[in-house]
Amino acid sequence: MRSYSLLAPAKINLYLEILGDHVTGGEDSRPSGFHEMVMVLQSISLTDRVDVRASGTDLIRVYCSHPQVPNDASNLAYRAAALMSKQFPDKFARYGGVDITIHKQIPVGAGLAGGSSNAAAVLVGLDLLWELGLTRDELQDLGAVLGSDVPFCIAGGTALATGRGEQLDALPALTDRYVVLAKYRSLSVSTAWAYQTYRQQFGASYLRRGSDLEQRQQQIHSGAMMAAIAQRDATKMGQLLRNDLEKVVLPAHPQVVQLREAFQQTNPLGTMMSGSGPTVFALAESQTQAEDIQARVKAAIANPDLEFWIATFNPFGIRIVE
Ligand SMILES: C[C@](O)(CO)[C@H](O)COP(=O)(O)OP(=O)(O)OC[C@H]1O[C@@H](n2ccc(N)nc2=O)[C@H](O)[C@@H]1O
Ligand SMILES: Nc1ncnc2c1ncn2[C@@H]1O[C@H](COP(=O)(O)OP(=O)(O)OP(=O)(O)O)[C@@H](O)[C@H]1O
């Protein structure tokens, strides 16, 4: 049976600003229930491995030994395969079912897009297995059906994301940067909850569509964060980190505030929560600084529930290993 093994990296958000309500359509535009975003997304070297294998059955099956990851149709990797089988029924009939095995390294419900990256890997894997020859744009359009982060996970690297996060502009690749990540094992945050709570608390200040929104998008485009990335100025980037979702997640989780403060005490280039959290990351100039930051935060919060990773910025998204 033919199979492919893919590496599916996690992402962090170097910048996440919520502008207002996201709308779909042209003249009869309607709120989609999502938010209009401006984000800078960055792939990191913390990766899952996803094996996609033709099974010779007519089933889609998912295997993952992580206790928090479902093995049924609710797994985002399963949903990616189901979408492909619906989209390409003749290929599904010809090549048959697929077994997907997820080797989890990326923490779950962490704000690091683990599920989205697994789904992106399945799209790429089935494109290969079923010899579809899809373009990156076509794969990303399919990814957007599954979730806002999936299109980015396909291409990876460093990107500016707008719309609900699915519209992407590649930015100069940032490499040789270190990131220290920490998460309480027993704590997860629901992305839907984070956005819903943000809407309840800050919805009144949302920008209306039209000139206000376009002006803000323009400001960010020509602003300091884009300049810092273009100049590969890690010190400036560290100072400009932003995540609007911190405004709702931090007040709800005092231990994340404490973790963020412990990171801040170590004088990193910058520290921030990633996505909807609760993972907190700090940027470091070198591996030595990253190790020092990790050791100091570990000593400051001696809690066995706290898990750490040191990663580098990754210039790519889904990659084939076999
Ligand atoms: C927090 C981030 O991870 C940052 O990169 C993303 O914005 C979320 O991406 P994701 O997990 O792929 O999100 P989706 O699966 O598309 O949506 C999950 C939930 O978040 C809300 N959501 C998501 C993206 C967005 N721009 N606005 C939203 O309000 C959706 O209403 C939904 O209830
Ligand atoms: N393949 C998968 N990997 C991880 N979680 C999955 C997967 N499929 C479904 N889930 C479920 O999705 C939920 C969110 O998991 P995930 O790890 O993708 O969150 P996240 O990193 O916060 O996502 P994001 O950063 O995109 O908002 C969990 O409750 C988990 O049970």
From TrEMBL:
Catalytic activity: 4-CDP-2-C-methyl-D-erythritol + ATP = 4-CDP-2-C-methyl-D-erythritol 2-phosphate + ADP + H(+)
Segments forming domain GHMP kinase N-terminal: 75-157
Keyword Nucleotidyltransferase found: no
Active site residues according to the UniProt entry: 11, 149
GO molecular function list: 4-(cytidine 5'-diphospho)-2-C-methyl-D-erythritol kinase activity
Pathway(s): Isoprenoid biosynthesis; isopentenyl diphosphate biosynthesis via DXP pathway; isopentenyl diphosphate from 1-deoxy-D-xylulose 5-phosphate: step 3/6
Transmembrane feature ranges: none
Keyword Nucleotide-binding (UniProt): yes
Binding site for ATP: 107-117
E.C. number: 2.7.1.148
InterPro entries referenced in this protein's UniProt entry, alphabetically: GHMP_kinase_C_dom, GHMP_kinase_C_sf, GHMP_kinase_N_dom, IspE, Ribosomal_Su5_D2-typ_SF, Ribsml_uS5_D2-typ_fold_subgr
SUPFAM superfamilies: GHMP Kinase, C-terminal domain (SSF55060), Ribosomal protein S5 domain 2-like (SSF54211)
Residue ranges annotated for the GHMP kinase C-terminal domain, each copy included: 225-300
Superkingdom as given in the UniProt entry: Bacteria
Keyword annotations: ATP-binding, Isoprene biosynthesis, Kinase, Nucleotide-binding, Transferase
Family: Belongs to the GHMP kinase family. IspE subfamily.
Function: Catalyzes the phosphorylation of the position 2 hydroxy group of 4-diphosphocytidyl-2C-methyl-D-erythritol.
Record's protein name: 4-diphosphocytidyl-2-C-methyl-D-erythritol kinase
Protein's organism: Stenomitos frigidus AS-A4
Gene this protein is translated from: ispE
